[in-house]
Amino acid sequence: MARVFQTLLQSRPRRHYYPYRRSSILPFILPFVILFVVFRLWPVLYAVALSFHEWPGLGDWNFIGFGNYTRFFTDRYALLTVFNTVFMGAGELLLTIVFGFTFAYMLSNRKLPMRGFFRTIYFIPRVVALPVGAIVFTLMLHHEVGVVNYVLSFFGVGNIPWLRHPDFARIAVILVRSWIGLGFVLIYFTAGLEGIPDDLYESADIDGANGIQKLVFITIPMIRRVIVFVGIIGTVAAFQLFPVPYMMTAGGPSRATTPVMMYMVNRGIGQNQYGFASSIAVLLVVLLGLIALVQFRIGGRERNN
Amino acid sequence: MAWENIISVDSRNKSAAAWLAIIRRWSLIGLAGLFALIMVFPLFWLVSGSIKLPGTLLTYPPTLIPEAYTFDNFRVLFQRGIPFQTFFFNSVVVSAFHVGGAVFLSSMMGYALAKYDFPGKKLLFGLILLGMLIPIQVLVIPMFLVVRDLGFTNTRTALVLPFIAHPLGAFLFRQYMLGVPDSVIESGRIEGASEFRIFGQLFAPMVVPAFAAFAVVDFVNVWNGFIWPLVVVRDQSKFVLPVWLNTLIQDPYLQNNAMLFAASLLTVIPAVLLFIFFQRQFVSGFSATSEK
């Protein structure tokens, strides 16, 4: 995404040596613009306008000022869903960064045979639908007969009540999302590791650095940017958390796995509180817009270096 | 004497170092293999579960490779009230139009942004950037209301039309097309070809890699998409595969978990096959789109 902003600043006007009629470019632009305005721009404006009203989906809009927003920030359930989202998002981020880096680091080692094969295997879960991941893990994590508890029993771990305990249910969601999301992170770390010049390692060899020193003093600092980037993308992705808890735990137990998205859809389409649901959408747009801005700043700094 | 000692110590160290290298190599392979097993295990479990006899999916201790297997779990999917092929067809049609439409419209928009000057271009480009930075999922509620106002909820069109003006696609195509020299276009103009023909016949063939990378990623996203189809389509006969899986899991009369696995496997297979055949395009597509 950093590249987005770099190239933005590079665009420059071009001269056209052979003229073309202005009208002939309309077919290139119009269909896209019409659909874009109707289905992207209009919904944003719609949400902003509706967020200041109460509306059950029929009849007149009832203006209530910032009522929906104050309701969101004072509703304990709403705030819990924010906490759940952040908790599960942070867990997934931690897990995918640690393992994504480990996998990429192993794959960057030229002594490892069949690197292409391993990379394919590590990446395949990325194309699995989240609902399928939810189904498979639901049975794998069954507290009595699940294969995960069976394997853990060999290590002396007692039966873990995966989907029946609030914290373990959150961890279960994290596991499914990490299994699927890891391939994405792996691609970025692999690219980052390939970008580190070999002579850095060679001069470290001459200085007699061991493997761990090279990892700590060369590799990790060199891919710090990738970590930040993956972290931002992962944060944005975390706020789209929905299918896995929806199908695995239906948001429970005791609402512990209800993410913001689920709360929003449930309040909007489930309970016809469209004004309130719109205010949540607006808050998410603003939050993710701010995150994009942070990304922009980082991208800008990268360009100046 | 001392001299010999030094030599022998040195040679002993050498062989120790060689042994260490071998141990390191094999522990690396072992670790990579272990991780590969863990990553692939859920898929293996899915395959093995889908051919287990009804009622034997949840046995303890779990059986990795079923002693008795059956394909009945698949067969019954084709014999339900609404059979599997209905949902498969829905998914294929929606994905095809979604990907085709997005590639078509977004590439033309990207082309216009890269190669033409027109009033409002900067504003439009800014809006497209904003559009691609905000994930569409957070807009499901207002989008649902817009589609409802336009009167086409509960149609397969609603799964396609709102998405084919794909801002990320337009952006990616613009980036890629900026790198193609203008001389291609100018040579077409000298020949007197129409702008549309220049784009279709001269220019588009040069950006096929971008088309492929975008198309495979867009395909996986729409094939696996869940929230929007769940919200906007009510008729079961119009469900796409992931939403259908959800109705199966919610079905209180469904006793056979193995059937659920069979349905999941059939949902996954097309995406996995596509990935295996177009691995390169996937990797470049994912790294370009940065869509997690």
Quick structural summary:
Chain A is mainly alpha-helical and 305 residues long. Chain A is 70% helix and 1% strand.
SSE order and pairing:
The complex is a heterodimer of chains A (305) and B (292).
Chain A: H1 2-10, H2 26-50, E1 53-54, E2 62-63, H3 67-74, H4 76-107, H5 115-123, H6 130-140, H7 147-153, H8 166-194, H9 198-206, H10 211-222, H11 224-238, H12 243-248, H13 260-270, H14 274-304
Antiparallel strand pairs in A: 1-2
Helix pairs in contact in A: 1-14, 2-14, 3-14, 4-8, 4-11, 6-8, 11-14, 13-14
Chain B: H1 2-50, H2 72-77, H3 84-115, H4 121-133, H5 140-150, H6 167-178, H7 183-190, H8 195-203, H9 208-224, H10 227-232, H11 241-250, H12 257-277, H13 279-289
Helix pairs in contact in B: 1-12, 3-6, 3-9, 4-6, 7-8, 9-13, 11-12
CATH homologous superfamily of chain A? Answer: MetI-like
Question: Based on CA inertia axes, which overall geometry of chain B fits?
Answer: flat
Q: Radius of gyration of chain B, Cα only, in angstroms?
A: 27 Å
Oligomer: heterodimer
Biggest sheet overview of chain A: 2 strands, antiparallel
CATH topology heading of the largest domain in chain B: MetI-like fold
CATH architecture of chain A: Orthogonal Bundle
Structural domain tally of chain A: 1
- Tally of DSSP helical segments of chain B: 13
Largest interface chains and counts = A-B, 106 and 101 residues
Termini separation of chain A = 17 Å
Number of strands of chain B: 0
Approximate strand percentage of chain B: under 5%
Low-confidence segments of chain A, given as residue ranges, are none
Identify the strand order in the major beta sheet of chain A: 1-2
What key attributes describe this structure?
heterodimer; A: 305 residues; MetI-like fold; two-stranded antiparallel ribbon; 2 strands; 70% helix; B: 292 residues; 2 domains; flat
Describe this structure in words.
The complex is a heterodimer of chains A (305) and B (292). With 305 residues, chain A is mostly helical. Chain A has one domain: MetI-like (MetI-like fold). Chain A has helices spanning 2-10, 26-50, 67-74, 76-107, 115-123, 130-140, 147-153, 166-194, 198-206, 211-222, 224-238, 243-248, 260-270, 274-304, and strands at 53-54, 62-63. Chain A has a two-stranded antiparallel sheet with strand order 1-2. In chain A, a hairpin with a 7-residue loop joins strand 1 and strand 2. In chain A, helix 3 crosses helix 14, helix 4 packs parallel to helix 8 and helix 4 (76-107) runs antiparallel to helix 11. Chain A is globular. The relative contact order of chain A is 0.15. With 292 residues, chain B is mainly alpha-helical. Chain B has two domains: 2-73; 83-289, MetI-like (MetI-like fold, Orthogonal Bundle), CATH 1.10.3720.10. Chain B is built from 13 helices and no strands. Chain B is flat. Chain B starts with a helix and ends with a helix. At the A-B interface, helix 1, helix 2, helix 4, helix 5 and helix 6 of A face helix 1, helix 3, helix 4, helix 5 and helix 6 of B.
